[in-house]
Design brief:
Elements lengths: L2 E7 L5 H14 L4 E7 L5 H11 L3 E11 L2 H13 L4 E5 L7 H6 L2 E4 L7 H19 L7
Parallel strand pairs: 1-2, 1-4, 3-4, 3-5
Helix pairs in contact: 1-5, 3-5
Length: 145
């Protein structure tokens, strides 16, 4: 079974974000083994880089505003391709200070959800939902509309 890692910096402070992430992780568990690797915030993105890179396993997708914007269907295709190749996936969300260039350059792929900036805690919910949606698309389920 494929492993999905959410490598995230900082803690979620609001319980409603935690509940939402936990719900999507629970739903995802029928498709993949999911692990959230929550790392402490550093003084700046460069200080966080080494711990982020150590936590990543398999194919690394860094969330970055300058990354590629793709549809849910294209994300599903990418996940399916990686699964067929036997690769685990690490999705990286930086702290409120962003990601260092070192992490962005080390990533296999940079993904952007928008030109807008989102709170990193909310981004965890959005990412976990989109990964769940991708698996549902790949399963041919009716969740995706």
């Amino acid at each position: 079974m494929q492993k999905i890692y959410f490598v995230v910096v900082g803690k979620i402070k609001e319980s409603f974000y935690t509940e939402a992430v936990n719900e999507y992780v629970k739903r995802l568990s029928r498709f993949a083994k999911v692990e959230i690797k929550e790392l402490p915030e550093g003084a700046n993105p460069e200080a966080e880089a080494e711990s982020i890179l150590r936590a990543c396993k398999g194919y690394t997708i860094a969330l970055a505003v300058e990354g590629e914007k793709i549809s849910s269907e294209r994300l599903a295709e990418r996940i399916k391709k990686l699964s067929n190749e036997g690769k685990d996936i690490s999705f990286v969300i930086g702290s409120s200070c962003g990601l260092s260039d070192k992490v962005k350059k080390a990533a296999d792929y940079r993904l952007s959800f928008s030109d807008m900036t989102f709170p990193h805690q909310l981004m965890r919910v959005i990412l976990s939902e989109q990964v769940y949606r991708a698996f549902m698309i790949n399963a041919g389920a009716t969740y995706h509309k």
